[in-house]
Amino acid sequence: MTTDPAAKDAILGVLLAGGLARRMGGGDKPLRTVGGRTILQRVIDRMAPQCVGLILNANGDPARFAAYGWPVVPDDVPGFAGPLAGILAALDHAARELPQVTHVVSVAADSPFLPGDLVARLDAARRAAGADLACAASDGQGHPVIGLWPVALRDALRHALLVEDIRKIDRFTARYRLATVEWPIDPIDPFFNANTPEDIALADDLASRHAGL
C-alpha cells in the first residue's frame, strides 16, 4: 500500500528523539549504527517517501543532527515531558510553518525497521472508522507513540500537558475516537525499539540476515 498523494501532501512526519537513553548509558540512541547505517538514517529513509516532509524532535544542541538535513524542533513544554511534548511541538510547527498540513505522523527515532506502509494504513484506518486519531499495533500490543495526529488537536494537547499534567499518551488519546492498525511481526516486529546495547546487537544481526529490513 502506498500513501495517497493528496494525503501525503497533508501529513508531516515527526521523528521523536527526545528520550534520555538511560538503558543505553546515555547519548542519542538514533545515532547508533545498525547494519552500517545509523538508526536515524534508517528511519528517515523509511519515512521520507511517506510524508510531505520530516522534522526531528530533539532538545539540546541541534548541530548534532545537522548532517541529516531536516529541521530540528525542540519541545514547547519546559522540562522533560515525554513524547506528548514532542508531538505538541510538531503540531505547533506544522500550524506555524506548513498550513497545508492537516496531520502529523509520529514515530520513535530509535525504531530501525518501521514499515513502508505506515502512513497509508494509519490514514486509511482513520478515514474508514471516522476516527480522530490512529495508532499502530503489533503482536496484540498498541504502540501509542506511533500515531497519526490532527493538527487541530494542538490546543487540547497543550491544555492536557500544561494544565492537567498528563504525560501518558493513552490518557490523552482515550478522550478521542482512536483507530488501531495491526502489523505482522514476521520476520521482526516493525516497531522494535533499540533501547539497550543488546537490542542494537540483535537489530544488527537481523539487518544482516534480512536485506529487506
Task: Characterize this entry briefly.
With 213 residues, the chain is α/β, with parallel strands linked by helices. Helices cover 32% and strands 21% of the residues.
Order of helices and strands: HEEEHEEHEHEEHHEH
Main sheet record: 7 strands, mixed
Poorly predicted runs: 20-25
How many structural units, i.e. domains? 1
Strand adjacency order, main sheet: 5-4-1-6-8-7-9
Overview of the structural elements:
There is one protein chain. It is globular and about 45 Å long. The chain is of the alpha/beta class and 213 residues long. It is built from seven helices and nine strands; from the N terminus they run αβββαββαβαββααβα. A hairpin with a 2-residue loop joins strand 7 (133-138) and strand 8 (141-150). It has helices at 5-9, 39-47, 83-97, 118-129, 154-162, 169-173, 197-209, and strands at residues 11-16, 33-34, 37-38, 53-57, 72-73, 103-108, 133-138, 141-150, 178-183.
